[in-house]
Amino acid sequence: MHIFSNYIIFISAVAWIVAVIIKGIYGIKRGTFSVSQTLGSGGMPSVHSALVTSATTAIGIKYGIFSDLFAIALIFSMIIIYDAINVRFEAGLHARALNSLKCNKESGKKYEFNESIGHLPSEAFAGSIIGIIVAMILMSF
């Protein structure tokens, strides 16, 4: 059985691809494009949010918004988006503070922690809108 024979996974993959492309275009327009930043965590839009909301929306359309499956998907989506906005965003602030120390005084080594691992609410919202739109379009076929 092919993995994309599962329509929910297919829709989620399409939403992920669309969000990554939009993230790359956004980086080009801002003059900050890099492949690692486009494929990495953080930034506009949230690819994680697009992925989970597309799956949740597709499940809601296919099985109904009162189904147990939709409830589980919605709860996990909320946890993932909360994590992106709060926990991972805060970890990015910690990384920025640690990077400002520049080096370990004993060894002289420089440490570079990834500062862009979380999302602003607007980035998560944009990703969620992408996920919902992709799922609604693809579920209409």
TrEMBL record:
It holds the Pfam family DUF212. InterPro entries: DUF212 (IPR003832). Coiled coil: none annotated. Keywords: Membrane, Transmembrane, Transmembrane helix. This is Acid phosphatase/vanadium-dependent haloperoxidase related protein. It comes from the Bacteria. The chain crosses the membrane at residues 6-26, 63-82, 120-139.
